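Batch queue: ligand-bound targets. Current item pairs a single chain with DQA. No template structures supplied; prediction is de novo from sequence plus SMILES. Inputs echoed for audit trail.
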Amino acid sequence: MMKLVVALPVRSLEDIKLVPTIDSDLVELRLDYLERPEDFDPSLIEDIKDRIIVTVRDPSEGGVKKVDEDWKASLYKKLHDMGVLYDVEARFLRKRNDIPFKGKIVSAHFFDRVPSIKEVEEIFEGFEEAWVRKIALTAKEGYKELLAHFARKGFAVMSMGSNPIERIAFTVLGSELIYASFDEGLETAPGQMNYKKVREILSCLGLR
Ligand SMILES: O=C1C[C@@](O)(C(=O)O)C[C@@H](O)[C@@H]1O
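Prediction returned. Tokens below.
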């Protein structure tokens, strides 16, 4: 069942208190927006852990703050032990063999080019036990065909920089997740639509 995800740039630990006010299926906490992501304490999300996705995005894939990779790995292991959903890059998993990914989101982001189907298949090889495999792709020549191919395979797919309405279309094509913004100016990637607008359109389509 497709899920609406609000991507929240966490600029202060106080922002985490917004989660209960957001009417979506999931809220992604983008911890890489914190001045010091290492200040994050997992106990802060104990009461909301069933509604969130924790993401510490690497700057090479659109993240803001660079963090120590051992710290990131240890955080994800702690979250795994807590039963918290997180989003980890396939490339980061490939570099390490100590981060559980079964039942989690494994992602790949392309901001400057459209990869081949073969390249994407190789990136995700071995991560079939993820809850969702996710591709975010810049809207350059060939992006629609590639995203449609993987949407039909059960991936979550999204185009970055094209008309935000396309994300609705990819949901209809089978994308497992649709990412939206919390508010204007708080987008965590180009091409996000405000989540209230997405919710309205999806309900018109009978998808929510
Ligand atoms: O990977 C994704 C998808 C995304 O990049 C998007 O295009 O909406 C937004 C990110 O916050 C999230 O981690």
